[in-house]
Amino acid sequence: MSKRVLITGAASGIGEATASALRSRGCDVVGLDVNADGNDVIACDVRDQTSVDSAVAGAIETLGGLDVLINCAGIGDPQSAAERPGEDALRVIDVNLLGTWRVTGAAIDALRESRGRVINIASGLAHLTIPLATAYTISKRGVVAYSDSLRLEMAGEVGVTTIYPGYIRTPIHNASVEKGIALEGVVPAEPLEAAAATLVKAALSQQPYRDLATSRQGAAGYAMFRRLPRKALDRLTLRRLRATAARGHFDGSELAADLRARLRASRG
Questions:
Q1: Would you give the DSSP letter of residue 127?
Q2: Which of 136, 146, 167, 222 is catalytic?
Q3: pLDDT given at position 179
């Protein structure tokens, strides 16, 4: 029997690619996105519970039930942890973390009825912290904690999988590029197709996975990060950041100006 799948953030990036891949496998897929662009994507603002409730109910009615919910909706906007949080920081946390919670809460009854599963998108930054990605890192660590809580509460009824993508060239990075702190050239990129394939695997597997990285390199790296003492991981991260600053990577960024000066002045 084909799976009935609901995907948030389905108008672009990982969500769009996953929706296409699942349809090619015979699944019935409805997307939610604030930028709805077709019959298969319903307009939904995951920051608004009323919008979420209406859109999720409409999707479940269209699908005739629900087997898999994939929470892909996410945004990225850099900030300094040393500055007061602004609206951009609150928006990141609201979309990435609370949006995941809102949509899952709206869909949980249908998932319990089908004994289905929830797939939440975290990030490699849930394991490795970098500066100036403050709200994003908070939100993605929060998604891991939310997944863990949901998994315990729904044990035996609804499966819960957490996915950890690395750096993938999607529009979520546009805000960082505009502020001069792009990840391009700093960390290796993973193909979008690999992320979509991982989500298809999580959606269609006979038994739900607990955690999945979107590449072998990511899986190996995250395993190492979990085992390293935090102090040692901080030293390694700062060493990499100093080398990056020395190459002039942050030179055009006003947001990174103070960090750049500290990195160039310090030795480690």
A1: T
A2: 136
A3: 84
